[in-house]
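S.,

Sequence below, as promised.
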Amino acid sequence: MQDYNPPPDDGLAVIYHDQALLVLDKPSGLLSVPGRGDHKQDSLLTRARRHFPDVECVHRLDMDTSGLMLLARGKAMQRLLNGLFARRGVHKHYVAQVAGRLTQAFGEVDLPLACDWPNRPRQRVDRLAGKPSRTRYRVLSHDPAGNTTRVALQPVTGRSHQLRVHMQSLGHSILGDRLYAPADTGPGASRLLLHACALAFRHPVHERPSHFISRAPF
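The prediction came back faster than expected:
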């Protein structure tokens, strides 16, 4: 089991806030919500509540993933935003650096995922019992010297570890992935090189399009 050593609390990276919602930039290594045990209480939600006591979680990022998270102000707004996610009204975009040269310029991975119970928290492709999972990808650039590829990723569904498992299924694990990178190659980076770089949705109050961007720190 991976040790939990959250990054220092240097203050919230607030991208946007109003009376209905918050958009925060989560650092890599920080839990989205508190985990089990006293040593896992530090999280983005915990830190946010020190400044916005009414904030509620509506989705999560993996601990090792950095980038944009949307949070609700109050229970009523949490229900509205949960409904927006359920209707796939929130569009999420990621950028990642993966091992090897991904030759196909763009494509889609459509592989069902299920929890790998003996090896939790790992997920696995399960064509019989897995939940439908779909990811679109597009090559942004190649790094011949490092033999890596920079890719844009858009999850159509929102399964746990979906982007990590889908990239692994193509033979191009995300660099820094200590759960899914092949043992003979190693993680390839000091952190997971996966960043939630954009969020787009219609604001649940005034219904105007809202679009937020965060530059990847790698």
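The mean pLDDT is 95.

Coffee later?
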